From TrEMBL:
One Pfam family hit: MerR_1
Family matches, as Gene3D superfamilies: 1.10.1660.10, Cobalamin-binding domain, Methionine synthase domain
SUPFAM superfamilies referenced in this protein's UniProt entry, alphabetically: Cobalamin (vitamin B12)-binding domain, Putative DNA-binding domain
Annotated organism of origin: Hymenobacter aranciens
PANTHER family attached to this UniProt entry: MERR-FAMILY TRANSCRIPTIONAL REGULATOR, REDOX-CYCLING DRUG-SENSING TRANSCRIPTIONAL ACTIVATOR SOXR
Domain spans labelled HTH merR-type: 1-51
Keywords in alphabetical order: DNA-binding, Repressor, Transcription, Transcription regulation
Protein name from the UniProt record: MerR family transcriptional regulator
Domain B12-binding residues, every copy: 177-299
Keyword presence, DNA-binding: yes
Length: 299
């Protein structure tokens, strides 16, 4: 069982710490244990209950009414109201996080499908899934989430992105079509962002060649000669080593010296990182979308 501070509950639930304290003291929403130094500590059950309480209060229900519900009644109320078109993004993230913590795969699938139908696939990924992944990052720091949770979610999301991409019309490779080569460098296996980039490009009428995970740089020479990409796109999450990011950019630039290189991911956000002039580093997926739309206009 994991243990949380009140500041960690704030990060995970989106509810301010002073509100959590008020709910706890006035309505008995949570019952934390206290350390020898009188510091509140919360458990997994507290986190799940707070996520459900936050969801119902976000729908306009009064805390005095919600606080009196049992855990089973809270869960039932959340599920009963999840069809509402007025659900905000934070509420949707909380519902997904609650299902993930319970390893409730059918509910995760159902919620993701509902959000996609209501918002559209791209908006669902940007406004619901991205904040969910940020929350999961916080859960990793507190050791409240395991590799099994992460694998479950990423497997489902990968399925969703592939299905959405497959449903798009084919883009013919014509002389007027901008060509994008997408790949992950050697030993890099974190594919979700690259898959979403492929969807973004295809949805905007761009031609892509998707090579996926673990692509050694030396093997790209033949691909570049045959495909003739205008832009190379890669995501650096865990590879290469931080000190080798600039060297990898130089290698890719030498491979296709006259082409644009798009580098995305945590390893590209290093202070003082010196990159070749042909490199572009979008900080967010929204920035990448803007880059794609701008390039489409310029063609």
């Amino acid at each position: 069982m994991s243990c949380y501070s009140i500041s960690e509950l704030e990060q995970l639930s989106g509810i301010k710490a002073h509100t959590i304290r008020m709910w706890e003291q006035r309505y008995g929403v949570l019952r934390p244990v206290r350390s020898a130094t009188n510091i509140r500590k919360y458990c997994d059950d507290d986190l799940r209950r707070l996520l459900n309480v936050a969801t119902l209060c976000g729908r306009g229900q009064r805390i005095s009414q919600v606080a009196s519900l049992s855990d089973e009644e809270l869960t039932a109320s959340v599920r009963a109201g999840c069809h509402s078109a007025n659900c905000d993004y934070n509420e949707q993230v909380n519902m997904l996080l609650t299902a993930l913590l319970a390893f409730d795969e059918p509910r995760l699938h159902y919620l993701l499908s509902k959000k996609t139908k209501r918002l559209g696939f791209e908006a669902m990924m940007l406004h619901v899934v991205h904040p969910l992944l940020q929350r999961i990052g916080t859960l990793w720091l507190t050791r409240a989430i395991s590799s099994a949770h992460e694998h479950l979610l990423l497997h489902l999301l990968r399925q969703k992105v592939l299905a959405a991409t497959e449903a798009l019309p084919a883009v013919p490779a014509t002389a007027d079509t901008r060509r994008w080569l997408l790949f992950l460098p050697a030993l890099e296996m974190h594919e979700l962002a690259l898959l979403l980039m492929n969807y973004v490009l295809r949805a905007r009428g761009q031609h892509t060649l998707y090579l996926g995970q673990n692509m050694p740089t030396a093997e790209l020479t033949e691909v570049c000669e045959a495909y003739g990409p205008d832009v190379l796109v890669t995501v650096l999450t865990s590879q290469p080593e931080r000190a080798r990011v600039a060297a990898l950019a130089q290698e890719l630039t030498a491979l296709c010296p006259d082409k644009q290189l798009v580098l995305y991911g945590p390893l590209t956000r290093q202070e003082g990182l010196q990159l070749p002039d042909n490199c572009t580093v979008p900080l967010t997926m929204v920035d990448f979308i803007g880059l794609v739309e701008k390039s489409a206009v310029e063609v």
